[in-house]
Amino acid sequence: MAETATSKNLPLAKAINESLRVALESDPKVLIMGEDVGKLGGVFRVTDGLQKDFGERRVVDTPLAESGIVGTAIGLALRGYRPVVEIQFDGFVFPAYDQIVTQLAKMHARSLGKVKLPIVVRIPYGGGIGAVEHHSESPEALFAHVAGLKIVSPSNASDAYWMMQQAIQSDDPVIFFEPKRRYWDKGEVNTEAIPGPLHKARVVREGTALTLAAYGPMVKLCQEVADAAAEEGKSLEILDLRSVSPLDFDAIQASVEKTRRLVVVHEAPVFFGSGAEIAARITERCFYHLEAPVLRVGGYHAPYPPARLEEEYLPSLDRVLDAVDRALAY
Q1: Is 299 in a helix, a strand, or coil?
Q2: Whole-model pTM?
Q3: CA torsion sign, 95 to 96 to 97 to 103?
Q4: What stretches of the chain show up as alpha helix (H) in DSSP?
Q5: Catalytic-role residue among 134, 135, 145, 266
């Protein structure tokens, strides 16, 4: 694709970098904080070059203390700043879990709406990169259970660019889960487009026989599944949820009323995962439209395994196709 003044072909990580750059340029109250985000540019180089261009007071290398990072961001937000906090890896967020769920999520309600905390917590998440322990978690359901937090995850470079800006502009705290295995996937980014609502799901492939609903890293896998199913004459619709909290149940319902079957795919464990809420709610809403139970494909209810075994743990083409076949067999 030929790049133009308004359209670029970017890896997902670079799209986030450029989105952060725009935010820093347009609002002096935007700050970036995290471990190694400055001189190093982050372990995935998502913040590469930003400290050099905006200085150490805008792009801040912090101590290795996640609770302190989020706590400091809360204090800055109370003084009118818009901090963007990076948690270096998904499994490192838990030292900050108390700050996020008892302070960040609750302050707006506790102050009867007088206090706003416009903080974005960036979390590279998920597996697929052969990482060591505590580097491949998918903890989105833990945060989605907490009222007061918005939870989003882009699946492509364009969404990464626009959703990050929308998250930073939000007066509510946003947990921004970045699919690390997709950081290097390239896509077209129109920097002058008019983005849709942050929490609106999008049909990325029309189909008639069954709906595949996914977000973040699993959307690309669902596209591969739909391609494989098409070779067998099966027409699958793919719905990129984009947001985990709030969930766009209206979009899911509209798709299911058309296809009458639903398979939800995510990397996180199926047990008490976000797919469980989707299955329950869609069963309530679409009971008389469904021709098969809502099926879920995800990780197992077990600690994330060593890198050599992660392909057995994560949803695969065959596991999702098996769920598709089971749903279509009803």
Answers
A1: strand
A2: 0.96
A3: positive
A4: 12-26, 50-54, 66-78, 97-98, 107-110, 140-144, 157-169, 218-230, 249-259, 274-285, 310-313, 317-328
A5: 135
- Give strand ranges (E) for 159-247: 174-179, 186-190, 202-205, 210-214, 236-240, 243-245
Rounded CA-CA distance 110/89 in Å is 30
256-307 per-position pLDDT tens digit: 999 999 999 999 999 999 999 999 999 999 999 999 999 999 999 999 999 9
Q: What is the DSSP letter of 272?
A: T
266 labelled catalytic: no
Q: How far apart are CA 307 and CA 134, in angstroms?
A: 11
CA dist 15 and 81 (Å) reads: 23
* 3-class DSSP assignment, residue 65: coil
Q: Quick count: other Cβ atoms within 10 Å of Cβ 104?
A: 26
Residues counted in the chain: 330
On whether the CB atoms of residues 87 and 93 are closer than 8 A, the answer is: yes
Count other C-beta atoms under 10 Å from residue 123's C-beta: 27
C-alpha 42/C-alpha 159 separation (Å) is 21
**pLDDT, tens digit, for every residue of 26-70?**
999 999 999 999 999 999 999 999 999 999 999 999 999 999 999
Q: Which two three-digit tokens encode residue 296?
A: 């879920």
189 φ/ψ angles, rounded to the nearest 5 degrees: -125, 115
Instruction: Tell which residue, 321, 143, 127, has the closest CA to residue 244.
Output: 143
Q: Which two tokens stand for residue 65?
A: 């203390």
Residue 1: alpha-carbon gap to chain centroid: 26
Cβ within 8 Å of residue 263, ≥6 positions away: 210, 211, 212, 213, 294, 295, 296, 297, 320, 323, 324, 327
